[in-house]
Automatic annotation (TrEMBL), chain A:
Protein name from the UniProt record: Nitrogenase
Residue ranges annotated for the Nitrogenase/oxidoreductase component domain, each copy included: 55-452
Residue stretches spanning the membrane: none
Organism from which the protein derives: Lacrimispora algidixylanolytica
An annotated Gene Ontology molecular function: oxidoreductase activity
UniProtKB/TrEMBL annotation, chain B:
Record protein name field: Hydrogenase
Highest taxon of the lineage: Bacteria
A family per Pfam: Oxidored_nitro
Signal peptide (residue range): none
PANTHER family for this protein: NITROGENASE IRON-MOLYBDENUM COFACTOR BIOSYNTHESIS PROTEIN NIFE
Organism from which the protein derives: Lacrimispora algidixylanolytica
Domain Nitrogenase/oxidoreductase component: 14-426
InterPro entries found in the cross-reference section: Nase/OxRdtase_comp1 (IPR000510), NifE-like (IPR049939)
Coiled coil ranges: none
UniProt-recorded Gene Ontology molecular function terms: oxidoreductase activity
C-alpha cells in the first residue's frame, strides 16, 4: 500500500497490513493462513487493558531533540509528560547532549467537549512557541477531540501562518486501532511528511531506527569498519539529522514493527533502500542483517572480514554457555517485531519455545511479504504453539499455568511480575539491544542462565501471594473469549 | 476552558483507578479506550494483588464510538466476575462513553444481584483531574454500597487523608496516622492499604465520626456522608508533620472525640520528648550547615504544600518564600486554603499562589531572592529550576522520579524526622 505523505492522516495497521490481535494456533497455521490470505483476526468478549497508540507515537516524537509536543486532550492523555521528561533527560545525559524538548497538555474540560477549544489550542501553540522556540511543534489529537470533531488540521494551518518552524498535526485517537504499534507509524508519518527533505547529495550515513540508543557507541564503532555512520532515531536525534534522512545509504531498524513505516516510506519516496532481513538479534540474525547492509552499501568484503574476526572471539564462548541452556523450556510474550526474532534466538541457544505470544501480528508487510522473522522460522522448519493477544495478561497466565516453562520472557512494563507470581522465572527483555550481535547474545545467554539457576526471588514471592484469577479461569482454554472474526 | 499544562502536576479523573487499586481486592473495570490504564497508573508500587494489566477494559474501538459500547460493557463485567477474584468491582467511565452517551448506570444496575458488588463512577477525563476523580470514587462507594447504620461503634474513626498514588507517601502516612489515632485510644478505620479492603469499607457507616486530614480534597465526601450516613466529620486541614503540628493534631482530635485531656497531654509529652531527643542531637548540624539558608518554597498539591510549610516554619524555624499550590484547587476552596497558610508562628503568613502553569512558577522562583541557596520541595519538574537557582531540591510531590518510596512517611513525629533526614541528605552534598 502506497504511503500518502500529502495527508496528515494514515491508515491503521489493521487496514494497511491486515494486522490482528486475536488468534490461537501454531506458527505454521498462522503463516500459511497469512500467505493464502485466509487469516481472520478475532475479537474478544472479555479483555484487559493494553496500551494506547498515542503513547507510542508521541514518546517517539518527544524524544527528538528540541521539539514541542502539544497533546490536545484532557489531562490524562498528557500524563506521560513527566515520564517522557525524565527518560529524555536521562538518555541525553548518558550521551552528553542536552535535549530541550517539552511535552505540553491542554487540560481539556467538559465545556470544551461541547463548545470546542480550537481557539484555546491555537493560543497554546503560539505560547509554547514563544516560551521555548522549539525547532518543530507536533500537535496531537486525542479520543475526546476526535469524537467531538475538533479540527486539529485547521488549527495547525492557522498556526503555521504565524510560526516559522514546522507545525505538524498528529492524529492519535486512541480508539482507532487496538494495535499500539500504529502509533510508531503515526510518528514516522509525521517525520516523513513534515520534516524529511528531498536529497541533495548522498551521504555515508545509515538510518538506524531504535528506541533509546543504548548500544550507540559500539554500533558506531562497528560501522567505522565499513565507512558508514549510523544516525540513531528518534531519541536524541536532531531536526537537521531528520531533514537529511533521504540522503542515507540505507535504513535499518532494531525492531521490524518499529521501523517498517519509515523504512518503506524513505524507500518509496526517495529510493533509500530498506534492509528487510531478519533483525540483528542472535547469531543468524546479526550475520544476515550485516551482510545485507554490506551488500547494499557495497562493503561486503569488509563485512565478511569483520564477521570472521568477531566469530572467533564470541562463538566459542556462546557454544560453551549453550551447553547449560540446552533443553530449557520457554514461553515468551512480546510485540511481533521481537517475539518471532527472540524465538529464533532461543532456538539457536538450544532452548525450546513451547508457546509464543505476539501482542499483534502483521499479516503482510508493506512489500506484500510475510514478515521476515516468520519466514525464517518456517524455512528452518521451526514450529511451536502461538497466539496473538494484545497483552491480555489472563491469557498469558493461563498458558504459563498449563505449560510450567522454565522461563518466561517479555518486553512490556508490568508483564514479568505475573510470571514470577506463578513461580516461573522471568527475564525482562526491555532494552532493544539486549540480544544484539554476538556480544549481547552471549550476555543474554548468561542472563538466562543466572536467572534459572537462582529462583529464590520468584519462589519466595510465589509462596506468599494469591493469584488474582479464579480457578475456573485456569481450567478454561486460552482462547475461550475469542469471538467471531472481525475482519 | 482548555489551558496550557506546562510541567503537568496531575492526571485526569479516570486516574481514580488508583484510588480503587488502593482498596485491597477492589478492581476497576474500565469502560474506555485500550490504553488509559497503562497511561494513568503509576509505575511505582503497582504490581499488587491487581495491577493495571489486570484491569478489565472494554477497549472501545471505532465501531463502539458509532454504535455505543454498552453490549461490550455488559459482557466485560459479566466475564470479570468469572475470571477475576475480587471483592468489589468498580466500573469507571472514560471520555468516549460519556461523550457518546452510553448508559453505564443501566448496565451496572443489571448486576445488582451479582455474587460480588458492582458499582460505577463517572470519571471521564474531561470532568476534572484525579483529585476530583478520587472524590467521585468515594462518593460512588457511599452512594451505591453503603447504608446508614443503626449502631455507632464508640471511638471508631474513619480516616481520610492522602490521595493514594498521587501522594506517593500515602501508604506510610496512613499507617502512621493509624498509629497516632490508636495512641489516643480510638479505633481507626482506613480503607486504603495493607490489610484493609472491603471489610473496612463496610465499617464506615458505624463510625462515630469521619476525620478528614486534607485542605480541600474529600470535603465533598464528608458532606455526603454526613447527609446520607449521618456521620459527623472533623476537618483538620493540615497534614501533621513534626512535633508542633502533630501535637496540635492530637489535641484537636482528642478534644473532638472526648479523650480526657490529661491522657492526650501525657501522650504528647512522651512523643515530644522522644522527638526532641533526636532534634537535640542533630541541632548543631542544622545550625552549622553552611549551605542552608532560611527561605524555602514548596511546589505541590495543597495537602503537602500546607503540611510541609507548617513544619518548616513552626518546627525548624525557616521562613516561607512564596508557596505554589498546583492541584487546580476549585475556586470556591481557594480562600480557605490560603487562610491556612496564614496561621503560622510569630504571625508569619505564607503567600500562596494557585498556579497550574509550571513555566510561570519557575519564573517566579528564579525572580525571588532567597538570600542564599533556596530550599525547594516539589515535583520532579523543580529539579531543573533548582539547578538553575543553585537550590537544594527534594522531590516530595507528583511527579516523583529518581527516588523510591515504599512505606516511608512524613506524617507525625517520626515523619518529621524522616523529612529532615531527606532535606539534609541533599544539603550535605555540598560544603559551601
Amino acid at each position: 500500500m502506497a504511503i500518502n505523505l500529502s495527508s496528515s492522516n494514515l491508515a491503521t495497521r489493521e487496514n494497511r497490513l491486515g494486522s490482528i490481535t486475536g488468534y490461537v494456533g501454531d506458527l505454521h497455521d498462522l503463516a500459511s493462513q497469512s500467505r493464502c490470505g485466509s487469516l481472520k483476526g478475532c475479537g474478544r468478549c472479555f479483555s484487559q487493558s493494553s496500551t494506547c497508540l498515542s503513547g507510542c507515537a508521541l514518546s517517539q516524537l518527544g524524544g527528538i531533540r528540541d521539539v514541542a509536543v502539544i497533546h490536545h486532550g484532557p489531562s490524562g492523555c498528557s500524563a506521560t509528560a513527566s515520564s517522557q521528561y525524565v527518560v529524555t533527560n536521562q538518555v541525553a545525559a548518558k550521551r552528553g547532549v542536552v535535549n530541550k524538548s517539552v511535552y505540553i497538555g491542554t487540560d481539556m474540560d467538559e465545556n470544551d467537549t461541547i463548545f470546542g477549544s480550537t481557539e484555546a489550542l491555537l493560543n497554546i501553540i503560539l505560547e509554547v512557541n514563544r516560551r521555548y522556540q522549539p525547532k518543530v511543534i507536533f500537535v496531537s489529537s486525542s479520543c475526546a477531540t476526535g469524537i467531538i470533531g475538533e479540527d486539529i488540521d485547521s488549527v495547525v494551518e492557522e498556526a503555521k501562518e504565524q510560526i516559522s518552524v514546522p507545525v505538524i498535526a498528529v492524529h492519535c485517537e486512541g480508539f482507532k486501532s487496538r494495535i499500539w504499534a500504529t502509533g510508531f507509524d503515526i510518528s514516522d508519518h509525521a517525520v516523513l511528511s513534515g520534516i524529511v527533505k528531498p536529497p541533495k547529495e548522498k551521504r555515508n550515513t545509515i538510518n538506524f531506527k531504535n528506541f533509546f540508543e543504548s548500544a550507540r557507541d559500539e554500533i558506531k564503532e562497528m560501522f567505522k569498519h565499513f565507512d558508514l555512520d549510523p544516525i540513531f532515531l528518534y531519541a536524541n536525534a536532531t531536526i537537521e539529522e531528520l531533514e537529511h534522512l533521504s540522503e542515507s545509504v540505507a535504513t535499518t531498524c532494531i525492531c521490524g514493527t518499529l521501523g517498517n513505516y519509515l523504512g518503506n516510506g524513505l524507500e518509496e519516496a526517495y529510493g533509500v533502500p530498506y534492509i528487510r532481513t531478519i533483525n540483528p538479534l542472535g547469531i543468524a540474525g546479526f550475520e544476515t542483517w550485516l551482510k545485507e547492509i554490506g551488500r547494499v552499501a557495497g562493503k561486503l568484503p569488509q563485512v565478511l572480514a569483520y564477521i570472521e574476526e568477531q566469530r572467533s572471539i564470541y562463538i566459542p564462548q556462546i557454544e560453551e554457555v549453550k551447553k547449560e541452556l540446552k533443553g530449557l523450556k520457554a514461553v515468551l510474550g512480546m510485540g511481533p517485531g521481537y517475539t518471532f526474532e527472540v524465538s529464533r534466538v532461543l532456538n539457536e541457544l538450544g532452548m525450546e519455545v513451547v508457546w509464543a505470544l505476539a501482542w499483534h501480528y502483521d499479516k503482510k508487510y508493506e512489500n506484500g511479504e510475510v514478515p521476515p522473522a516468520m519466514s525464517y522460522l518456517l524455512d528452518n522448519d521451526i514450529n511451536f504453539e502461538a497466539s496473538v493477544a494484545d497483552q491480555q495478561n489472563f491469557e498469558v497466565m493461563n498458558i504459563l499455568n498449563k505449560y510450567q516453562p522454565d522461563l518466561y520472557l517479555s518486553r512490556h512494563p508490568g508483564s514479568t511480575v505475573w510470571a514470577i507470581k506463578q513461580g516461573i522465572p522471568a527475564v525482562y527483555v526491555a532494552d532493544e539491544y539486549m540480544i544484539f550481535g554476538y556480544k549481547h547474545t552471549l550476555e543474554f545467554a548468561h542472563t538466562v542462565l543466572d536467572t534459572v539457576r537462582n529462583r529464590s526471588f520468584e519462589q519466595n514471592l510465589a509462596k506468599r501471594v494469591k493469584l488474582p484469577y479464579t480457578d475456573w479461569w485456569y481450567q478454561q482454554e486460552v482462547g475461550s473469549f475469542l469471538e467471531e472474526a472481525i475482519s | 476552558m482548555a489551558k496550557i499544562l506546562d510541567k503537568q502536576r496531575y492526571k485526569c479523573a479516570m486516574s481514580a483507578m488508583q484510588t480503587v487499586q488502593a482498596i485491597d481486592r477492589a478492581i476497576p473495570i474500565l469502560h474506555s479506550g485500550p490504553g488509559c490504564a497503562q497511561k494513568l497508573s503509576s509505575s511505582s508500587g503497582s504490581s499488587g494483588y491487581f495491577s493495571p494489566n489486570i484491569y478489565p477494559c472494554t477497549s472501545i474501538n471505532e465501531k463502539d464510538v458509532v454504535f455505543g459500547g454498552v453490549k461490550k460493557l455488559e459482557s466485560t463485567i459479566r466475564h470479570s466476575l468469572d475470571v477475576i477474584d475480587a471483592d468489589l468491582y468498580v466500573v469507571l467511565t472514560g471520555c468516549i462513553p460519556e461523550i457518546v452517551g452510553d448508559n453505564t448506570e443501566e448496565v451496572v444496575e443489571g448486576f445488582k444481584d451479582a455474587k460480588k458488588p458492582v458499582i460505577y463512577a463517572s470519571t471521564a477525563g474531561f470532568k476534572g483531574n484525579n483529585y476530583k476523580g478520587h472524590e467521585e470514587v468515594i462518593d460512588s462507594i457511599v452512594d451505591q454500597l453503603l447504608e446508614p447504620s443503626d449502631i455507632r461503634v464508640k471511638n471508631l474513626v474513619n480516616i481520610w487523608a492522602d490521595v493514594p498514588y498521587q501522594n506517593e507517601f500515602w501508604h506510610g502516612n496512613f499507617r502512621e496516622l493509624e498509629r497516632l489515632i490508636e495512641k489516643l485510644g480510638l479505633v481507626p478505620n482506613i480503607i486504603f492499604g495493607y490489610n484493609k479492603g472491603l471489610s473496612n469499607v463496610k465499617k464506615i457507616p458505624a463510625a462515630q465520626f469521619n476525620l478528614l486530614i486534607s485542605p480541600w480534597v474529600g470535603l465533598n465526601n464528608m458532606k455526603k456522608m454526613e447527609q446520607k450516613l449521618k456521620i459527623p466529620y472533623l476537618h483538620y486541614p493540615t497534614l501533621p508533620i513534626g512535633a508542633f503540628e502533630t501535637s496540635k493534631f492530637l489535641r484537636t482530635v482528642g478534644r473532638y472525640a472526648g479523650v480526657p485531656e490529661e491522657k492526650v497531654e501525657a501522650i504528647i509529652e512522651e512523643q515530644e520528648a522522644y522527638y526532641y531527643y533526636y532534634i537535640e542531637r542533630y541541632a548543631d548540624l542544622f545550625l552549622e550547615t553552611r549551605v542552608m539558608s532560611k527561605q524555602f518554597t514548596v511546589v505541590s498539591d495543597a495537602h503537602y504544600a500546607l503540611g510541609i510549610t507548617k513544619f518548616l516554619v513552626n518546627d525548624l524555624g525557616l521562613y516561607p518564600a512564596k508557596q505554589f499550590v498546583v492541584d487546580d484547587t476549585p475556586k470556591g476552596n481557594q480562600e480557605a486554603v490560603s487562610s491556612y497558610f496564614k496561621d503560622l508562628n510569630y504571625g508569619i503568613e505564607a503567600e500562596v499562589s494557585f498556579e497550574t502553569d509550571g513555566y510561570k512558577i519557575h519564573n517566579e522562583i528564579k525572580a525571588h531572592d532567597y538570600h542564599g541557596y533556596p530550599l525547594i520541595l516539589g515535583g520532579y519538574w523543580e529539579k531543573e529550576v533548582a539547578k538553575q537557582t543553585n537550590a537544594h531540591f527534594l522531590n516530595v510531590s507528583w511527579p516523583v522520579n529518581e527516588r523510591l518510596i515504599m512505606n516511608s512517611y512524613y506524617v507525625g513525629y517520626d515523619g518529621g524526622l524522616k523529612l529532615i533526614e531527606d532535606i539534609y541528605s541533599v544539603a550535605k552534598t555540598r560544603f559551601n
